[in-house]
Amino acid sequence: MIKLVAIDLDGTLLDSKKEISERNKAALAQAKAAGVKIVICTGRPLAAIGIYLKALNLQDNGDYSITFNGGLVQKNDTGEIIEKSSMSLENVHDLFELATSLNVPLDILSDGLVLQLPTTQEYKSLYSQLNKLLTFEPYEIAQLTIDRIYNKAVVAVDETYLDEQIKQIPASFYERYEIIKTRSNLLEFMPKGITKAYGISLLARDLDIKQEEIMTIGDEENDLPMIEYAGLGVAMDNAVAKVKEMADVITDTNDNDGVAQAIEKFVLEPLRGGN
């Protein structure tokens, strides 16, 4: 029996208009009412998903989200952090040097603030267009202090140029960081071992939920670890090929209520005694 459902946002729960369909809302509401934990699992900070949590009625005591691709596990009602993994200032300097050598823009997320570092004069970061609910401020690398929280680093730039520059990243960086494209024009860096699956595993431990009692739903490469980890990994029909290959089942697209269809079949039907 599924007791926890972890769901990605973009390309999964959200349709092409960045909206949540009524069918998706209804299915998730029924699952929550039945006692199933509905957990948004995203690369975004909590400040950037509040409108979706409100729309889904996921702001009660006992509701949780996994943010920063597994870096934080938080209570939705208070924002309290119950599990945390973040980057060091040394990591930020390391990635600053990499971005400068690759001539790409670099943004560092620090809670709800995005620190925009001067790593290139030629290419403007597209991250503010992708996440309009966040606050962006220019920073010099020398302004950063050891006591600040650094959640993740991102490079948001034209897809064609990004793909060319990715080829130039030294292998040593892949040994030190989780490096994943979360959208066609967005590359993210997290500390090694910090993935959505990691965050889910911590929350499941805290809630005494077994791995086989977890269902995950996603579409992009940063969803791969949680798709593989879960007792039931579900890929959207619009998912990238790697996610489809890893998934246990494939549901419909994000524009055709794929999340609701998976919830109805694998969560609600068993609760009602269906086959």
UniProtKB/TrEMBL annotation:
<dbReference type="Pfam" id="PF08282">
    <property type="entry name" value="Hydrolase_3"/>
</dbReference>
<dbReference type="GO" id="GO:0016791">
    <property type="term" value="F:phosphatase activity"/>
</dbReference>
<keyword id="KW-0378">Hydrolase</keyword>
<dbReference type="GO" id="GO:0000287">
    <property type="term" value="F:magnesium ion binding"/>
</dbReference>
<dbReference type="InterPro" id="IPR000150">
    <property type="entry name" value="Cof"/>
</dbReference>
<dbReference type="InterPro" id="IPR036412">
    <property type="entry name" value="HAD-like_sf"/>
</dbReference>
<dbReference type="InterPro" id="IPR023214">
    <property type="entry name" value="HAD_sf"/>
</dbReference>
<dbReference type="GO" id="GO:0005829">
    <property type="term" value="C:cytosol"/>
</dbReference>
<protein>
    <submittedName>
        <fullName>Cof-like hydrolase</fullName>
    </submittedName>
</protein>
<dbReference type="InterPro" id="IPR006379">
    <property type="entry name" value="HAD-SF_hydro_IIB"/>
</dbReference>
